[in-house]
Amino acid sequence: MVSDSRYEIPEPDDCNPKEVFAFFGLASYHVQVLEKCLVIMVLAFRCKGLHITRREFDSLYAENSMKTFGQLLSRARKSNSIPNDIDSILEDALRKRNWLIHHYFADRAVQFTTEIGRRQMLDELQSLIRIFMDADRATETIYKPIFEELGVTEESVAKMIEEMVKEYLSKEKTDE
After folding, report:
1. Mutual orientation of helices 54-65 and 17-47 as an angle, nearest 10°?
2. Do the Cβ atoms of 44 and 143 come closer than 8 Å?
3. For 143-175, how does the pLDDT look when each residue is reduced to its tens digit (9 = 90+)?
4. Is the dihedral angle over the CA atoms 133, 135, 37, 29 positive or is it negative?
């Protein structure tokens, strides 16, 4: 199996507070990636079998991007296309996402004051990152085949990303 750097979790350099904040940020990043995967899954279910324009797709994307993780999961469940094992993974990710974002530092205030506690927090954050990445991969197994049926392939997505990067870099040069 080829290693994919998107799914590699770094090791902390030490147990200082900055590391805890950095890994909290990385966990939050992976939650956002997962949330966008849910948006894409909802769109895949919505667009399956339809011929929609880019403008209609963009409108649906914008509408769903404003939804919470829980709202997106509810919308996706209405399709009855999520296997039970993946639904359980997503439900667990939702619970852990909500705890991470709303309660993590309050619940870990005492641990944060000691090196041993921060080490435990770093281990816990790495575990949460893995959970969010696993949920991301599980979600991809659902929406990728649908998008491939619609003509959206990994190659076409890579080309679009390349164009976006070129556009960004050309803007950066003009802003200098």
Report:
1. 140
2. yes
3. 999 888 888 888 888 888 898 898 898 887 777
4. negative
